[in-house]
Design a protein that fits this description.
Jelly Rolls, 11-stranded mixed sheet, single chain, 8-stranded antiparallel sheet, mainly beta, DUF2961 domain-containing protein, DUF2961
């Protein structure tokens, strides 16, 4: 079974079988969907009975961790869809994925950040591996192969109960010997120490491919903020990286401050990269500018054979630019939360662990 999938593969016959886990079929067992006699939809389905959307969702109490899936392999996760009520707890809800019986997760990311919505406010994302659709429908198509076992949990760290609707589509069947394990690491610097790079990824040992970045970036200084270079330190690189970009907006496929004359910061969402969210000050309670942006290395994966470290500079332009005076770079102290996605030849844990203090949002979360 390949870990990539193209249109040509639709015509190929395989030995794989399709299964799906949801609140209508908690185990993904064959012929076991829609059998519930009680659940969150039972009051609405009381006159219709069994088989009529009796269990479309689950309630997760404050502080509770629920097991969404526990699957025996070999197989590949193909699609994850979910939505929540309320929407305002996306940063305070932790998604974890475990491979091959490991006790520590290979994926540990706030739910919203995993789907490029890190600010507890909905933003449309129209990319190939990730789609976020009105109003809060989250989709991920990253192929996630496993050989013996896959386990998915969700922890509600918010102060109130949440309701989760979800569906996990997967395929049971042979996994290629060279198929690597999907990983995601989330980190936050709040604020970044001036002169110190924000670390997106570190401590990765082994061979693999870096495939994606999402940044939720809050600006704490006036002026332009996105001059910082993305740097990829590969296979023993020390002081200087092998791959060094030309600026933050350049890395995400934009240019010239994402500023279209006459309209300012301009959102865009494309198959592999985008500035999908711009939250502007409102003159009252929203005092800072906040941004969400993604870059998927699907056609240009960053390959490494031994180890990988990724950083971004928190670099802006000081006042003087635009008023006739020479501009100067300025080391900023912004709030940067990053999600790094990569494949690795082993089911190693994501590190460091996400702690509740890093999840606090100083932003109005009312929808």
């Amino acid at each position: 079974m390949s870990t990539t999938f193209g249109l040509d593969d639709l015509a190929r016959r395989t030995g794989g079988v399709s299964r799906s886990i949801s609140a209508e079929n908690f185990t993904g067992a064959k012929g076991a969907g829609g059998m519930a006699t009680e659940g969150t939809g039972a009051p609405a389905a009381s006159r219709l009975g069994r088989g009529w959307k009796v269990s479309p969702s689950i309630d997760i109490a404050a502080g509770e961790t629920v097991l969404l899936a526990d699957i025996d392999g070999p197989g590949t996760l193909r699609h994850i869809w979910c939505t929540t009520a309320p929407h305002a707890a996306w940063r305070q809800t932790l998604l974890r994925l475990y491979w091959e019986g490991e006790e520590t997760p290979a994926v540990e990311v706030p739910l919203g950040d995993f789907f490029c919505n890190g600010w507890n406010r909905f933003s449309q994302v129209s990319s190939i591996p990730v789609a976020a659709n009105p109003n809060g429908g989250f989709n991920a198509y990253w192929p996630m192969p496993f050989r013996r076992r896959a386990r998915i949990t969700l922890e509600n760290l918010a102060a109130e109960q949440m309701t989760l609707y979800y569906q996990i589509d997967y395929e049971l069947g042979e996994v290629a010997d060279d198929a690597a394990y999907f990983h995601a690491q989330w980190r936050r610097s709040n604020p970044v120490t001036p002169g110190v790079d924000h670390v997106l990824l570190d401590g990765v040992q082994g061979a693999g491919s870096y495939v994606g970045t999402y940044l939720a970036w809050a600006v704490n200084s006036p002026g332009w903020w996105g001059e910082g270079e993305l740097k990829f330190f590969l296979d023993g690189d020390d002081e200087f990286p092998t791959i060094c970009g030309t600026g933050t907006e350049d890395y995400f496929g934009g240019a010239w401050n994402f500023d279209v004359p006459g309209q300012g910061y301009t959102e865009f969402t494309t198959p592999y990269l985008g500035l999908n969210q711009v939250l502007r000050p409102d003159g009252l309670y929203d005092s800072q500018q906040r941004f969400g942006m993604y870059r998927w290395h699907v056609l240009d994966p960053v390959r490494f054979q031994e180890d990988l470290r990724v950083t971004v500079q928190c670099l802006g332009i000081a006042r003087g630019h635009g008023n006739g005076l020479p501009h100067r770079y300025r080391q900023n102290h912004d709030d940067i939360a990053s999600t790094s996605l990569y494949y690795l030849d082993r089911p190693a844990p994501a590190s460091p662990p996400v702690t509740p203090d890093l999840l606090d949002l100083e932003v109005d979360t009312h929808m």
